[in-house]
Fold this sequence. Notes:
The chain is 72% helix and 0% strand. With 392 residues, the chain is an all-alpha fold. The relative contact order is 0.08.
Amino acid sequence: MDFLTDLTDIRTVQWLACAASCMLAFILMVIKIPHSEHTKRLNNAKFTIAVSFLVCGFMMAFSLHKYPYILEYEEFSALTMLITVSFSTMAISYSMVNILDDRIIPSNILSINSFLLAVTSFLLIDAFLGDGGRAYYLISLTATLALFILQSIYYIVKFDKAYRKSILVLNSYYDEDEDHKIRWLRFCYVIAMLTDVFLLVYMALPDGFMKIYIAWYILFILYFSANFISFIGSHKIVLDAFAHRTLSGQDLFPAKQIRPKEKNPEEALDTRQRDIEFRKIARNIKQWVADKKYREYDKTREEVASELGTTPEMLAFYCSIEFKQDFRSWRIEQRINDAKKILLEDRDVPTSVVGDICGFSDRSNFHTQFVKLVGCSPKKWRETGGQPEKTI
């Protein structure tokens, strides 16, 4: 273990990778998530990722164990990293897609992928350590690389599909722009795929560079784990939306060809009934605005409609008739108008805090919506005293 004193030794970096991956696997294993329909996918993802970290720890320990017997240790380390990253790519990709939508990837894909990886990994190690000849080694390496590249492409396509659909589900369920709550998933996934690409690059470089890649991989799993654990602590708002179909038996986006035709509120109500319902909604909305309820976010359509004493469908119908826009757009206008007043009346309050006060949980969304409706940034609105057409 004297090599641990030399940070430039690849064995030191491998030892750190082994320790870090095992530690992270242990932490994920001991984290308890209350079992429910909300958290079933999250528990499965947690377990799958923890197992992939254990595979990483095993491969690092296996490499260190073989060090005294292998002359081409740098090349051998590259192969063990290929196996490690293949398993982690599979586990992380499957888990992240499954969190977003468990119907995108068939349940048996993980088992098939794991089996193929185990077979190609065994053949690759056997070809390198055994005496099967150069042809056997090249065939095994080619098969492993091909599987690695194909699975990466497959999961990229599936993740993109799941992410796009999940944004629609999340925004529809909460009637807000809530995509920032799962943005970390996309960012981490991009880094994971870049880690895959970097591996192929480092395998083509001369000896001495693989330890740099292993160090990068350590940083990646630490960063990913920190974000994943943070998500576990604040998952409910996201999983409420994703679990909506399972819990309610309804699909937010059912297939058009099998969707039963429903009567809209205009057809279901006569003029007198509609007027009575509209007057009730108008009274409730007036009080709702006076109480600044539009500042509240992370509420579902059903919760907001319940506060207004109506149904989501009737509320949407009312807004389309009375406001000539949907409820989300109208509520954003109320928030922006509120923000415009605060920016001028309380100049000591930072613009980012103003956005949060007025109901925007995401700073970038506040800035985007403000510019869209007002025509200038919150900062310029404040600096010009509410007259952005003036030049300073």
